[in-house]
Amino acid sequence: MISTFAQHELKAFWRSKNTGKNLATRIVMAILILYLLLNVLVVAFYLDKIIDKAMPDEDIIPGFCGILLYYFLADLLMRLQLQELPTLRVQPYLTLPIKRNSVVGYLSFTALLSVFNLWPVLLFTPFTVKIIAHENGASVATVFILAILGLTVFNNYLALYIKRKSNLNGWVFLVAAGVLILIGIADFSWHLYSIRGISAYLFGHLIKQPVLVLLPMLLGAAMYYLNFLYLKENLYLEELGSRKASAYKSSTEIPLLGYFGHIGDLVANEIKLILRNKRPRSSLVVSLFFMFYGLIFYTNPQYQSSPGIKLLPAIFMTGIFIISYGQFMFSWQANHFDGILVSKVDFKDFLRGKYLLFTLISTLVFILTIPYVYFGWNILLAHFCMYLWNLGINTTIVLFFANRNYKRIDLSKGASFNWEGVGATQMLLGLPLMIGPYLIYWPLAAFGHRDIAFIAIGIVGLLFILTRSYWIKQLEKDFNEKRYTIAEGFRAK
């Protein structure tokens, strides 16, 4: 049956009306992936020298054992963001005398054909053959390769399980990403434990007790079986539909939005769109990751000597969601944009909903970044002033450029290596978003009034917030002039 399913998939690909476009995209992706794999191979053959240079006081094999868990944690985080779910149109097969185990088995098997599963094999196999086999024999090297393969399979199916669960409830994805981040923080910042020490202990014992290789292999097999059972239980269309409805309902019932009436309903629908679809959800995840952006700047003495550099983390941390999600503002609704044009929704309310969404998420991120006051009160001042700037000016700029973005986005596609909707508008958008605050900061800072420069930025942002109704009217007027051009662009597939 596997060969039959594969033939059906190939026929569906070649018979698609977008075959030419899809084929060109896959060729470009294949070239990029091949280039990345070649880079991985280069690193693999010099891995022993890299470890020796990075850890000169430690033997190479213990140093190698100590980095393995770091790799697999980073690998899992990368898979959650980039790895695509294997798909199969199951509807035609459910009414045929085909065992469900065959359908589920095909989906589970194709999940192994991911380029992410090649990386650890290419990266670590040369080291085990070159160093571990030479020092401890071929049997120990084989045990290491089997352990790496077991953890690779475990990561593969764990990431797919989390992503499938998150399709029913978007909070699952955020919780999983948050747990991985907390694991890293507990090691590097709180020093509750050492991942490197745990990794060195576990993999170091493989040399003395090779039977321990059964542990990662059993973990991989158990995760495969759990993923298999989940797919089999959810292969019935009526069950998938009922579960989605209940999960989506519970994931967007935010009591705070009830106070905003009809505008709150629009924001709730926008939150549903974000949590249900991979690419807009990635914008939310990126905004959470950027909360740690300040650790790069505020802990580095080189950056502390330049106060103006503090604008960069302040811009990104409090406004990255506005930038990453807002640059495709109307494109997210491309599939039902014609319905918006003919609906009873006043476009002013539509814009107010966008402003409210940006305000809620930016306010949450600003509150979560308040602990950076540990590095100085002027940092909190910079964050607050840029928070006002982002809500007042950058939000307005983003919505202004949204009226000039005519490229649709297909929400059914994944987020990884997806440039759909990207055009010249996004490139031009970055200039006013990044340069604008410095046009106020540099003249005042040149005379030594750095704190006053931050305050001036915040005052300008606050003025735009207080005059928001005026800007909404201007944006509505601008939209009415371009609404049909936007709709025509969104209809082009």
From TrEMBL:
Task: Give the transmembrane ranges.
Answer: 23-47, 59-82, 103-125, 137-159, 171-193, 213-231, 282-299, 311-334, 355-374, 380-402, 422-440, 452-471
Q: Which organism is it from?
A: Mucilaginibacter agri
> What Pfam families does the record point to?
DUF5687
Domain of life according to the entry: Bacteria
Protein name per UniProt: Uncharacterized protein
- Keyword annotations from UniProtKB, A to Z: Membrane, Transmembrane, Transmembrane helix
User: Is Phosphoprotein included in the keywords of this UniProt record?
Assistant: no
